[in-house]
Write a structure and sequence with these properties.
The chain is α+β, with helices and mostly antiparallel strands. It is built from nine helices and six strands.
Length: 266
């Protein structure tokens, strides 16, 4: 005899089947939701990547430099010359100057001194101002005129930027007895050039640099031994000033700026 399922058994089986069907349908709905969510995430990620790629391309592609970028390029190029150039680039072997009757002559470099601190390269009154505005270092070299009669030490004080240099030059004294300390080289015509032999000193600002000049006679004459009118009317100071100005010009001469961010092609 076969036992036929009772009504209660059929109900329980139907309920189980419905539960199984509902579970399957719920799983299908969850899967659809997951697939839809994953699709949205992938789409958003693709948009983000696309926008990033477009932005990166725009940022990195070659384009014309703005006026601000051109100015910054010039300032940065000039500011690193004291390090990027060899010492012989900062202080050329020969420097033009105008002699008597405005005749072009050449001062010859005798030697280049080791790089030194700002405080050790100038008189104390000048060092105080340089230190106040963050002087980095001082480079010095000594020249003689074409006749080896005049001795000239040129000192390049390196400031942090052009604004600091402008602040220093606003406060520097106009006293022509103080400035850069002379550098003499033994065994040369400059060996008698010392602090007491300085006849006049001066300076000129150029970019982030202050170019100092100190001049005297190769024969060792002190300032006290030379009459004031001779100091004022001597050819010595115009020659020394011209040499200092030439070196300042070399250092601050505006570089050629590339027209585009990646060279000459935009």
């Amino acid at each position: 005899m076969r036992d036929w399922p009772t009504a209660g058994t059929r109900s329980r089986r139907a309920a189980a089947e419905r539960a199984e069907t509902d579970s399957i349908q719920q799983g299908v709905r969850y899967r659809r939701m997951f697939v839809a969510l994953l699709t949205v995430i992938v789409a958003v990620s693709a948009v983000v990547v696309l926008l990033g790629t477009v932005g990166l391309f725009k940022e990195t592609r070659s384009r014309p430099l703005t006026a601000e970028e051109q100015n910054r390029y010039k300032q940065e190029e000039i500011a690193r010359r004291w390090q990027a150039w060899p010492a012989t680039g900062v202080f050329p072997e020969e420097v033009k100057y105008l002699g008597l009757d405005r005749a072009q002559q050449y001062a010859k470099r005798v030697g280049i001194a080791p790089e030194t601190s700002c405080r050790e390269a100038v008189d104390p009154s000048v060092a105080g101002v340089l230190d106040e505005y963050g002087c980095v270092t001082v480079l010095r070299a000594t020249y003689v005129d074409q006749t080896s009669t005049f001795v000239m030490t040129v000192g390049v004080a390196v400031l942090q930027d052009e604004a600091a240099r402008a602040s220093v030059t606003d406060q520097l004294t106009q006293d022509d007895r103080v400035g850069v300390l002379p550098v003499a080289f033994p065994g040369t015509v400059t060996e008698r050039f010392g602090v007491q032999q300085r006849q006049r000193t001066g300076w000129v600002g150029a970019g982030p640099y202050i170019v100092f000049s100190a001049a005297g006679y190769a024969d060792g004459r002190t300032r006290a031994a030379v009459p004031p009118e001779e100091i004022l009317h001597s050819e010595l100071w115009p020659a020394a000033k011209s040499v200092g100005n030439q070196i300042a010009y070399f250092l601050a001469d505006p570089p050629k700026v590339p027209p585009c961010t990646q060279g000459n092609v935009c």
